[in-house]
């Protein structure tokens, strides 16, 4: 089993579809997925390494890439569930994978790549040892 199959730091959230989430065709707008991805990433931090710890250390998590694949539409009648996990953690970069499903059908997938930025210099920063230890422990679980 590879690290990505182990779904390190995995989180799940259910998302209600609101009237303001749908476009003129009656499906969830593309921009809504970006917000849901943010909710999932923040949940990972809440559960595994609080954002406050990063900010107190002068580090800001920053996205550098987002790829979203819209496989099937989600409508206002659906009750999507999002899942996200860390697929890779390097010295200066992290990678996430997410799925949005309705029932057992995956409707949308996404990949995101990011890094930590040292807020005083604006340069990429190493992940704290404690953060990397949490990730490694998840791979062994």
Query: What is the percent of helical residues?
Result: 25-40%
Give the total of beta strands: 6
**Residue ranges: pLDDT <50 for 5 or more in a row?**
none
Approximate strand percentage: 35-45%
Provide the CATH topology: Thiol Ester Dehydrase, Chain A
The CATH superfamily label reads Hotdog Thioesterase
Q: Give the CATH class.
A: Alpha Beta
Instruction: Report the mean per-residue pLDDT as an integer.
Output: 94
CATH architecture: Roll
- What is the H/E string? HEHHEEEEEH
Q: Can you tell me the overall shape? A: globular
Provide the descriptors you would attach to this structure in a database record.
single chain, 141 residues, alpha+beta, Thiol Ester Dehydrase, Chain A, 29% helix
Question: Can you put this structure into words, describing what you see?
Answer:
By secondary structure, this protein is α+β, with helices and mostly antiparallel strands. It has a single domain (3-140), classed as Thiol Ester Dehydrase, Chain A. The protein is built from 4 helices and 6 strands, in the order H-E-H-H-E-E-E-E-E-H. Strands 1, 2, 3, 4, 5 and 6 form a 6-stranded antiparallel sheet that branches. Strand 5 and strand 6 (124-125) form a beta hairpin. The chain is globular and about 45 Å long. It starts with a helix and ends with a helix. The mean pLDDT is 94.
């Amino acid at each position: 089993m590879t690290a990505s199959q182990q779904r390190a730091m995995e989180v799940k959230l259910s998302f209600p579809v609101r009237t303001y989430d749908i476009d003129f065709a009656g499906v969830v707008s593309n921009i809504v997925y970006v917000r849901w991805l943010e909710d999932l990433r923040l949940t990972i931090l809440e559960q595994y390494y609080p954002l406050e710890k990063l900010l107190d250390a002068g580090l800001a998590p920053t996205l550098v890439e987002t790829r979203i694949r819209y496989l099937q539409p989600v409508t206002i009648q659906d009750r999507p569930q999002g899942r996200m996990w860390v697929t890779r953690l390097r010295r200066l970069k992290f990678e996430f994978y997410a799925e949005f499903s309705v029932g057992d059908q995956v409707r949308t997938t996404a990949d995101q790549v990011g890094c930590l930025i040292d807020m005083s210099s604006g340069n990429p920063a190493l992940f704290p040892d404690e953060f990397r230890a949490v990730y490694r422990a998840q791979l062994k679980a």
